Sequence to fold (660 residues):
Amino acid sequence: MQDERYAFRGKKHLLLPILFLLPQLVITVVFFFYPAGEALLGSVYMEDSFGLSREFVGLDNFVVLFSDPSYLETLYLTFIFSIATITLTMTVSLLMAVVADQVHIGGTLYKSMLIIPYAVAPPLAGVLWLFLFNPSVGVLSSLLDSLGYTWNYKLNGNQALLLLIISASWKQISYNFLFFLAGLQAIPRSLIEAAAIDGASPWQRFRNIIFPLLSPTTFFLLVVNTIYTLFETFGIVHAVTQGGPSRATETLIYKVFNDGFIGLDFGGSSAQSVVLMFIVMILTFLQFRYVERKVNY
Amino acid sequence: MANVRLINIDKTFNKNKVLSGLNLEVPDGSFMVMVGPSGCGKSTALRCIAGLEEVTSGTIMIGDKDVTHMEPKDRNIAMVFQNYALYPHMNVYDNITYGLKVRGIPADERKRRALEAAKLLGLDGLLERMPRQLSGGQRQRVAMGRAIVREPSVFLFDEPLSNLDANLRNQMRIELRRLHQRLATTSIYVTHDQVEAMTLAEKILVLRAGHIEQYGTPDDVYLRPASVFVAQFMGSPSMNIVRAKAEGGNIFLPDGTKLSGVQAADINISGRSGDILLGLRSEDLIFDPEGDIHVTVDIVEALGSDTLAYCRPLSANPEKQESSSVIVRLQGSQRPASGDVIRLTARKGHGHVFDTETQLRCL
Fold:
């Protein structure tokens, strides 16, 4: 009998597999390769404001970018935003997963409820927190007000950033929770029991046994969360602060949009997105190169 | 060193009674094996002693201490799990010494004890290895090493050999005995394998559906099984149980055959008459041309050292033929063919008599 795996071998059998792959290939080419190529190309041209002509300028766009102090501020801001969001997301979701893992009665309901925020689109998640913290009608801001704390993220840049970090984390916690919970449930119970008999306190069990065994999950989530904070948080920023007040919350991805589609500087915007692309590539590479080594698979 | 006492232990899972009224004492330094079919509660009993399960009611004593409500770590026990439960991210040395480390034992003392245990178990060259680089037998040794270094007063074993292949299992069984002879630590061992139970135990506890069916030495359990259940569970192949009648000091098969080999006086039931259950082990039925039991050979299993013949009783009166089969252990050289009629005698004094109603042994 012929081995199934070799059924597609040879040139005459190439058509069928290509047909199977075609839908995904088309999506990838149209929505990923084409725009990325356009951005790469656009980053070495300068275009006039009306989009009528463009001129090859080499790496000038990048030179302008890195000599602009406001761009460096944005880099720094994005760095703060990403670190804070990733830390908050992963700490809270790990904590929730550890607790949920212990729940026996009504556990399924509890876990399902925790997963719901993941189904909410980023802009909606942003709007939700926007309403909660709205300086004039927000429930939480009036609560803060009554405690004597003036909350107005529309004026206070730090508050605006904090609001973004909270909304972005809230949205991503479900996803992290799900993976942490699955990771926890994959750890054999007898390992924890063995540690308990060995004399380890609950904290020691977590620190010495559970957390190291979760490290593949943690590493995976670190990569996913990095990409999330750098790219996917656009919707939240756009819905909540639009980068304001006075660019205090303008992250890299938002600046790409702002300079390109609002400021109509397509060359500069393209150069920024190329930089962002490289940042993500380098971060992912570094994570795989150095963090993965310490991961126990 | 300590004895272990269970006093009126009940354990209920969601209204399911898993253990009921367990009363038991494991003497200091002895090796006790809990055996029984799946779901009889033996693992649950062990986990209750370990403190991994809370008992529903009753008291557990280790030595003079009431440990019923203590955390596992305070009970001074060590446990070896069926799947070894080695920490996969720690090497052998760290696995063995983890329990000492969290208990704050200094590093040089940890090292001394670990090396000692490694030597005892033949793990000398493997201390730097990770668990995934070890064979099943080596992992099992590491798991035992982890238990030994703690120098606990009780060892608990939860089917520790069931993941090993047959050869390795025999080997490890012998090592376990040797280890117990050296350390003489009170050990409680759970298994469903009656050979393991017979060979390892000083005392055997036969559990059935959460209660004690028999508790005694291997000889007690094998030679004087307390019930039909114990008789059939211990020993391989399991004991033949046939309906019989006792009358006037003689025992008759249902077809009226008088058994010359087994007489009521031999098995202490002289005074009894009426229906009984007669238990005969396969090795207690002897191939004998003059024998009074006639059987037809159905299936023959040649094991090399001996031959097992699965036979259907054939009586003088074919209408009263019993359908249940009888297993006879013959010598390796004796190979009856399927369909042969052979004659057997019961070995004198080796019958077991049980009550038909209660299924308990009649003394």
Observations:
- The first helix of chain B runs from residue 42 to 50.
- Chain B has a mean pLDDT of 86.
